[in-house]
Design a protein that fits this description.
Chain lengths: 289, 170
Amino acid sequence: MVNDALENQPTTAGIVTTTEDELILQDQQMKRIEDEQKASPLVGEKMPCATLVALYDQETAPAFFEKANELAKVYSHIRFIRGDGNCFIRAIQVGLVEILLNDKERLVKFIASSKEWTERLVKLGFPDWTCTDFCEFFIEFIEKVRDGVHQREDVFRIFNDDNTANYLLMFFRLITSGYLKEHAAEYEPFLDEGMSLAQYCETEIEAMWKESDHLGIIALVRALNIRIRIEYMDRNAAPNGGTHHNLPDGHDNATFTPDITLLYRPGHYDLIYKAPLAETSKPALPTVA
Amino acid sequence: MAGYALKRLMTEYKELTTRPPEGIIAAPIDEDNFFEWECLITGPEETCFANGVFPARITFPQDYPLSPPKMRFTCGIFHPNIYPDGRVCISILHAPGDDPTGYESSNERWSPVQSIEKILLSVVSMLAEPNDESPANVNAAKMWREDRAQFEKTADALVRKTLCLPASEV
């Protein structure tokens, strides 16, 4: 279930490439991500995919330029997420809340499952109130979305406020950790020798600004019961050498309808969107059947 | 500004006052500034620090508890895991990856679900059982390892000082 190839995907620290050109490209990429981290908002505005294409030069970065153009044919918009180590989790949180803003029924179910998660975490032995405090903080936020106290623009203002956004993010880190702990027997074998799942969760999942690796990704997707697609800018990075990867595994590629689509560039995730189905200013993201 | 951090610190203060851990007192220095605390830690029994009452300051970052606080003893304590200027160097005060002393991965790290109480309890254990593998005070670590009697004498002198007792005659 955790794909071996996915395990080998490059992280910020390790670069997996062969040619010098590609190395230069990745260096530029990393530089760009570093600059972005300092200068860009936590959650950017939704921009036309042409913005992505414009990042790459046809002469110096032909592979990425070509891939960006391919993506722009399928996807209409991109939302850049700050590369601060939280980008995967932040992208999922923003993408999910965007869906919930337009799907009241799903929002109500999501609130119920968030409340269940609070109990599940307590049952798993998470430190009592320091943990539930984060749960309550998130639930209070999402209930205000349900009650219309937080409108769409409020939500994006909050997601861009360091003093609030990172605390909301902690809830997703905790349920990721909780999901792994509930399925310890399944996931512990994937850890480096000598590391317990509890240690892994404490140092890699529950700690802020730590990048999500494959275990963190699959656990959050399963904890939230969502379907995601990850598009790979770099073909070498994709498991099975394809151009995208669907999670959770085991669905027929042809019929798989992701809730959220992410673009993976070395060490970083952003949100990407298909063109709205109907003529409307709202994002018409498909929901799970 | 710092809404969550302040709320969390107020909750922790309430918890610590209603259910204080044995031998520990901790509170904000000024109720107008919850980001600067003072605490008193009693030396653990049956150790050379027993009966001493050691004052320390805890400084919280604006994004607490996402980032850990800093802690500094203000009484000139001589201990392998406390820098000569009083700063406490234990794993729970460090986020994973931020690793000045090369702790083993099995040591407890800071994570946002930790608490002030957990830190203070770790500090008490540290007083009882110094870790001389990765010392913050090399001289203290050396003395602890090679001349335990002298280390205990130094600790005893400090205990007496914190209690305002005259120095031992031994």
